Amino acid sequence: MRIERLELRLLRLPLVHFFETSFGRVHDRTFLLVTVDGEGETGYGECVAEASPYYSSETTETTWHIIERFVAPRVLGTEFAHPRDVFPALARIRGHQMAKAAVEMAAWDLYARQQGVPLSRALGGTRTEIASGVSIGIQDSLEQLADKITTELAAGYRRIKIKIKPGWDLDAVEMVRSRFGPIPLMVDANAAYRLSDASHLARLDRFDLMMIEQPLDYDDVADHATLQRQIQTPICLDESIHTVKIAEEAIHAGACRIINIKPGRVGGHGPSVRLHDLCAAHGIPVWHGGMLESGIGRAHNIHLSSLANFTLPGDVAASKRYYQPDLVEPPIEVRPDGTIPVPTAPGLGVTIVPDRVARATERVADMRAT
């Protein structure tokens, strides 16, 4: 596989509804779209870095710079035997996993299209459908939260996740349990708490949650291990797991019982498959997180979620929850039973709509092999 051309676009899409976490509230999504060409085919990758450095130190501007100045020169014109070789080829660049992942994932899509197989098969996936859960941001009131949950349960979602932060946690979870009973429920703190909050977080144990996601600092493992010994609710790590090596350390330390896999956070599909396999070997279930992706990134997530150890419903929801219209056809939709079919056409298996991409584009860079 040889990449002859790489196009970089900065896109902005308005969200259907605002989305709020402990980091703040957003009304639109700014992201990079990477297109790679080779041997008459085209592959697409979406960079999940946000405009602000709150979830990650990477932003749309830093990833643009790293891809244009450092990643593109290392992949353009280079012969790769397989897309799993792209991430190791970028090892000299320290960090910047989201920038690397956007290009690496586009290369996987390109390879699958060249081979005439769906991306799921290239990745080693076995499922023909995935279970879908939904993430609900912090709302203006408990009644508004209840209305959101009612809507999502009616749509068939198999698991509800609500964002929490100090001041919006126990009352919100108690309301959900009293209104909706024993539904599959998890909470996501996005690193909003400290180890000194352990006794407060232990009060969540009585609600029989599937997990609490990333309660402590984004770069922490040790305190999560201490916290897990003090609470019964399983801890799931997200932001802390940005390499396979750190995941191995977290598992051995007992810092988590579940891991959220986001390809952008760990460098792409290749590292994600390695992380999936590591967790499977240690009996740690995984699920696929979401980053408010467009249908392009969402399609990537669906294909990766077809691997066997993705045993918990992920944050891979219908496109219409976030963007109308989305950038792809057909749109990503959730069936009434809460599942999403894995596309069967080559590569991502969805069609990118050029005029929608063009309308959302704010900047373009075109790079070619010499």
Overview of this protein structure:
The protein is α/β, with parallel strands linked by helices and 370 residues long. The chain folds into two domains: 5-116 and 352-368, Enolase-like, N-terminal domain (Enolase-like, domain 1, 2-Layer Sandwich); 122-341, Enolase-like C-terminal domain (TIM Barrel, Alpha-Beta Barrel). It is 34% helix and 22% strand. It has helices spanning 60-75, 86-89, 97-115, 119-123, 142-154, 170-180, 198-202, 222-230, 244-253, 263-266, 269-281, 295-304, 354-360; strands spanning 5-21, 24-38, 41-47, 129-131, 134-136, 160-163, 185-188, 212-213, 235-237, 258-261, 286-288, 328-329, 339-341, 351-352, 361-368. The strands form four sheets. Strands 5-6-7-8-9-10-11 form a seven-stranded parallel beta sheet. The chain has a four-stranded antiparallel beta sheet with strand order 3-2-1-15, sandwiched between helices. β5, α5 and β6 (160-163) form a beta-alpha-beta unit. The two termini are 16 Å apart. The model has no long low-confidence stretch (mean pLDDT 96).
